[in-house]
Write a structure and sequence with these properties.
The structure is a single chain. The chain has 16 helices and 30 strands. It is of the alpha/beta class and 487 residues long. The chain has two domains: 3-284, Purple Acid Phosphatase, chain A, domain 2, CATH 3.60.21.10; 292-486, 5'-nucleotidase,  domain 2 (Alpha-Beta Complex), CATH 3.90.780.10. The mean pLDDT is 91.
Length: 487
């Protein structure tokens, strides 16, 4: 038996979270301290690899201002050995992603995204990385949600498809059966629950040793082992670094032992990397003047503690978009928020970091029964998935109560009155959620078009919110019981 040691470090869903945040007198996260921690471990461990499981982009002002170019430059300094595609990698457009790929000094992999009519993958499906004689195979997978964004690219989007995860895994494993691979890693961006389902579907002795996941922003304290395969994920941003220490028998090409932990990245145990600091400061200076301007003030800080339940901040944004609009109810996807709160002083940087994704808003003219079907579906899925599915905030006047025990929408009211099946309602819905209505809301675009063709009423929700905030003062909001799940 010839035993070799290997360390695999990993991050997921950084979303351009370059700057640390302060908590209890210390700094937490940030790309500079992460770079320092990586360098320290690399000096200690002879056989060391670093992987990122997708969603490099969208979530910070620096990333948005430079459309990912700044992010690629800083990720290059981290020297990852492999990165898989996340669904937000296409937020600046697929063509722009292919440009950014050329700027990257690391391999970008994905096995299940295709140009459908040509049966051709957009990226290399996998990568074998050799470190001191050890061969590690990484296979990249992405969630089908990536198609919801690419549909906005009218011509290109119509040619894209996402294939079944398991079929692509088996195809790749078959092609490497005659190669002496010491370890096989699935580097996925499909969410924790889907990782679990995928592990259950894999055949015994499939050859998959580890699943390093992303997309659901799940912070695990220990691996979830299913079908003998450890599944790990370390939240989001750069506040934790996953670390595997693995023992491999190179005679049998088997993982015989491992340990894993989520290492906290903070000023108590990490030093800043000087080169990363210089690059970060250079980008920061270019946007400081623009980002420091005050948009408005709130009466108090408005919390957004969860993207899977009603919050004061999501209520405020739903109310702002509905105010003086042509629709009755704003239905706002709470995944649009990428921060824990906002205010009381709101500058441009705060606003863009908390609400980074720009969307057009569609107005839907639908019957009450269709609206009920949509609401029932997302509430049921939120309950069944324990908060990993899409959730929605509603503007003032809407009351929803879902009884999970009876699987019934027991309260379905607008302005204090029960919504009738034949009642005509006008609903505001972001474009991303309109494009993904079948998956998120269990309705087709044809159903949403029966009474009237959906039409765009807001071309940029970010620009609209910015204008509203600039013209408001001392805003406030609270949790009112607009959306409740009874268990």
């Amino acid at each position: 038996m010839n035993i070799r040691k290997l360390t695999i470090l990993h991050s997921n869903d950084p979303h351009g979270a370059f700057l640390p945040r302060e908590k209890d007198g210390r700094l937490i996260g940030g790309i500079s301290m992460l770079a320092g921690k990586l360098e320290a471990i690399r000096k200690e461990e002879e056989n060391c690899l670093y992987a990122i499981a997708g969603d490099l982009f969208k979530g910070s002002l620096i990333d948005a201002e430079f459309k990912g170019i700044s992010t690629i430059e800083m990720i290059n300094l981290l020297r990852p050995d492999v990165v898989t595609i996340g669904n937000h990698e296409v937020d600046y457009g697929l063509a722009h992603l292919l440009f950014l790929e050329k700027c990257a000094r690391f391999p970008l992999i994905n096995a299940n995204m295709f140009i459908s009519d040509f049966s051709k993958r957009l990226f290399e499906p996998c990568k074998v990385i050799e470190v001191n004689g050890l061969k590690v195979l990484f296979i990249g997978l992405v969630t089908s949600e990536i198609l919801m964004t690419t549909k906005g690219e009218e011509l290109i989007g119509s040619y894209l498809d996402v294939d079944d995860h398991l079929r692509q895994i088996n195809t790749i494993l078959d092609s490497y059966k005659t190669t002496d691979i010491d370890l096989t890693v699935l580097l996925t961006h499909i969410g924790y629950e889907e990782d679990r389902r995928l592990a259950q579907r894999l055949e015994e002795n499939s050859g998959i040793d580890i699943i390093i996941g992303a997309h659901s922003h799940t912070l695990l304290v220990r691996p979830k082992v299913i079908n003998g395969i450890p599944i790990v994920q370390v939240g989001s941003g750069f506040e934790h670094l996953g670390r595997f220490d693995i023992s491999i028998d190179t005679d049998t090409h088997k993982m015989i032992d491992y340990s894993w932990m989520a290492l906290p990245i903070n000023s108590d145990n990490c030093r800043k990397d000087q080169l990363m600091e210089e690059v970060l400061n250079a980008y920061g200076k270019q946007i400081d003047e623009k980002s420091s301007r005050i948009l408005t003030t709130f009466k108090r800080r408005l919390d957004h503690h969860s993207r899977h339940e009603e919050t004061p901040l999501s209520n405020l944004f739903a109310d702002l978009m509905q105010k003086d609009s042509s629709f009755d109810i704003m239905m706002l996807g709470t995944g649009s928020f990428r921060g824990k709160g906002l205010g009381p002083v709101v500058d441009y940087r705060n606003f863009k970091e908390v609400y980074p994704f720009d969307n057009r808003i569609y107005m839907l003219t639908i019957e009450g029964k269709t609206f009920r079907k949509m609401c029932h579906h997302f509430l049921k899925q939120t309950y069944l998935s324990k908060g990993s599915e899409e959730f929605y905030a509603f503007s003032k006047g809407m009351e929803l109560k879902y009884d999970a025990n009876s699987d019934d929408l027991i309260t379905f009211r607008y302005n204090g009155k029960d919504i009738q099946d034949d009642q005509i309602l006008k609903i505001g819905l972001p474009e991303f959620h309109f494009n993904s209505c079948e998956e998120f809301l269990n309705v087709t675009k044809e159903e949403l078009s029966q009474l009237e063709q959906p039409r765009i009423v807001v071309n940029s929700d970010v620009a609209t919110y910015e204008e509203m905030l600039k013209n408001s003062f001392e805003l406030d909001s609270d949790i009112e019981g607009r959306v409740l799940i009874l268990q």
